[in-house]
Amino acid sequence: MSELPIWGGIIRKLWPTEVGKFREHLLRLDPESRRMRFAHAVSDVFIEDYANRMHHMGSIVYGYFEGPHLRAAAELRKLSAVWGEEAEAAFSVEKDWQGKGIGTALMGRVIRAARNRGVKRLYMSCLAENAKMQTIARKHNAMLRYEYGEVYGEIVPQGPSYFSLFEEEVEDRMGLMLAVLDIQNWAARAA
Ligand SMILES: CC(C)(COP(=O)(O)OP(=O)(O)OC[C@H]1O[C@@H](n2cnc3c(N)ncnc32)[C@H](O)[C@@H]1OP(=O)(O)O)[C@@H](O)C(=O)NCCC(=O)NCCS
Known about the structure:
Oligomer: single chain
Number of helices: 6
CATH class: Alpha Beta
Structural class: alpha+beta
Mean pLDDT: 91
Bound molecules: coenzyme A
CATH topology: Aminopeptidase
Strand content: 25-35%
Number of domains: 1
CATH superfamily: Gcn5-related N-acetyltransferase (GNAT)
Order of helices and strands: EEHHHEEEHEHEEH
Shape: globular
Helix content: 40-55%
Distance between the termini: 36 Å
CATH architecture: 3-Layer(aba) Sandwich
C-alpha cells in the first residue's frame, strides 16, 4: 500500500467544507497552468463559480496538502446521475510543485476511486501541447486520441477488488486523522 505522506505533504480527499481551499488553489495556478487546466484562459469569477460547484456535482476531489495549503488537486466527476459507466478526471498542480510526481500519484488515486465505484470508462482531456499530462496518462495506460488541438484520454479501470476497496478505506481514515492533527498543529502555532 502506498504511504500517505509524500514529499513533506499528504494526499487525501477533500471534505465538502474545504471548497475554499480548492478555490484558493485553483486561483493560485499561474496563467499557463490555468490555461492548461481549463483548455483556455478563464477568469477568477469563472474559477470561483467552478470551485463552489465542486461538491454539488458529486465530485470526489483528492488533494495534495502541505500544512493547511492545498497545492494540487485531482477531480473525479461522474457523467451521469449515479456512479457507474462513465466519469471524467481533471488535474491541477501549482507550478512550484510540478514535475515531482504529484500528478502521477493523484492520477493513481483517481483511477482507484473510479474502479471502486464501478466506473467502466474514465475520460480526461488536455491541450495537444500538454506533454506532461499525456505522459502521466500514458503511464496509467490511457488510450489517447488527438483531435483539433486537444487530446482525449480513455482509461478502462479494472473492477473493484477487496484490496482496492480496503486501500481506499484505510487511506480515508488516515487522511482524516492527519487532517485533524494538522488543524490542531496550526491552531496551536497560531495561539
Ligand atoms: C499536467 C500536470 C497535472 C502533471 O502533474 P505533475 O505533478 O507536474 O506531473 P508528474 O511530475 O507526476 O509527471 C510528469 C511527467 O511528465 C514528464 N514530462 C515533463 N516534461 C515533459 C515534456 N516536455 N514532454 C513529455 N513528458 C514530460 C516528466 O518526466 C514526468 O514523467 P516521469 O515521471 O516518467 O519522469 C501538472 O503539470 C499541471 O497541473 N499542469 C497544469 C494543469 C494541467 O495541465 N492539467 C491537465 C489538464 S486537466
